[in-house]
Structure formats: C-alpha cells, structure tokens
Amino acid sequence: MSSYRVYQQTGLALDPIHVGTGGARIGRVDLTIVRDPATCVPKIPGSSLAGVYRTYVAMAEHERNPNRQVNGEPWPYYPNCAGLGQAREDKEYQGHCGRNNCPVCTVFGFARGRDASGGFAGLAAFSDAHVLLFPVPTRKGPFWITCPMAMRLIVEGFTEIDEDALHRPQEETKPLNLGWLLLPVKALDNWDERVDRPLRDKGIPDYILRRVGVVSDKLFTHIVNSNLEVRTSVAINPETGAAEEGALFSYEALPRATILYWEIICRNPQHFRVDGQPVVVRDSNRQATIEDIYEVVKEAHPYLEHLGIGGMGTRGMGRLRVLFSESKEERAGEEVK
What is the pTM of this model? Predict the structure, then answer.
C-alpha cells in the first residue's frame, strides 16, 4: 500500500498572472511578482496554490450540498471550511468544522481549536508552480522558450546546451530575435525524444509544440525577466474625471500563454486519523483512498479557469487552465506497456 502519490499538473495562463510579493520597491515596477531566489525566474508559490485550491473546493462542495449541517446546526463548506479556521465571536463565521468526513478539512487541513488542541495538516501538498514554457515575441510570431533546468522538471537527464544560441529541431541560416535578443538558431540532437515527446506527454498543444525553442539556463532567466508584462494603473478623481496626482503605479505579471508546471502530492488517508476516526468519503462510511483525495483536489480546476489565481483578478488577470493532470505512476505504467 503506497503512502503517497504524486500528480503532475501543467497549466496554461489564459490571462497575465500576478502573484505579488506584498510590497513595493524602487525599480522598474512598483509591485513585483514572486521569484525563485536562486534563479530569479518568476513562480507561483505552493502556498498560493493551496489557498485557491482550498477555496474553490469549498465552493464546489457548497454547490453540491448548500444546506449542510454539523451537529444539527447550519455549517456551510463555504465560507466556513475555506477560511482561516478560527471562529469569530463578532461574526457569523464559524471556522473549520474539522470533521473526518469533510472533504475540505481532511484534504487541506484544519486549524487548532481555541484550547490549542486538535488540528490536522491535511492530505494534499502543493509544490511551487514553475515556468516550463515562456512566450516571447519574435519576427516570426510568438515562440515558447524553455531551458534544461525547466525541462528537468518533466524529464530526467536533460543535458546542458550551447549558451549563446537558440536550439530548434533544425538549424537555420538566419538568427531569430527573442524580444530584444538576437540569437543564432542551431539544431538540437534527438529533438523528438528530448523535447517534443516529454512536452506532448504533458498535454502541451500542437500549436505551441511547433514553436518551442531551447536556450541555456543563463539566457532563460534574462529572457523571461525582460519580457514580463508590465501594466500601469491610476486612481481617477470622480469629481474631475482625471487622474489623481501621485496615484499612478505599475505592476508586472507572467504573460498570457505561459505554461506552468507543478505537482500535487496526495497522502494515503488510511494512514491518518481525525479525532481518532478514519478519514471517510463525504457523508458515507467508506474509508477514503489516495484517489478519493485527488478527486476532491481536482474539483478546483474549473474554478481556476474562470476565477483565477493571484491579484488584479478584476483587471483582466489570473485565469489558469489545467492542461494535464495525471499521476507519475500512471504515466510510468503506460510507458512500460
């Protein structure tokens, strides 16, 4: 009996995505997005993914059972089981229910009670979402750029490449611009095995696969950070209809059509107890399995596509479509066959 299972996910940004650092800095933009401290490539933290997944699963469960009760009292999944967890005396918010049959509290965890007792870590864990393919403007239209470091997220042993070239299936006589950067185009050996097939297996559509290029890790960081979307916003004075003085600010975002990769690790619920009771499926008495845990997590995917993730959601940002969702074990089994 496996103790856990890893589910791989790829997603396509339908809008620019802004997951901010929570503050402003002196520089090119006022509101920056989260970056990996080692590579400086933007990412979506696992904490951000876990938060929106929990919220959207709670919404889905509330739609499924809007009149839910706990101990004879109304206790809706949303917002109670989606929030911070602690009940508030001055509001109707009751906090997490902490029941062993609650799909939200068991999968995502619940907070300790006021007496510091109880609490549960949750059965689903989320990695950071990293950039797998990044869209860049060229004289031939948009291309999606990746690098050995990004490809190693989905395929083992991707070797280093020439640092000063763009690698494609065939060599080309003319260089190609990636934004402001002009690079010679060289052929990459075993393109189908090293690039095309791993990406195709992760649900990347053909119109993107035909326009994929590989650059070095060093160039990838510069290309990504030089081609982020930057927007400006300003407060409008309702009396004059003109901009407020000093109210202009700028913010950056991962551009539309960025491909992201992340993993969801589901623990085996049969190894855990909630208040001494086994984890069961919703209001049934059947003990939950790893597959049941992931089925709950997947309920968030339609909401991600329409309600999005990150900030500026009312300003045309945040929507993310999940392209691929499968366990590593299932994919390995297909390859063996």
Answer: 0.91
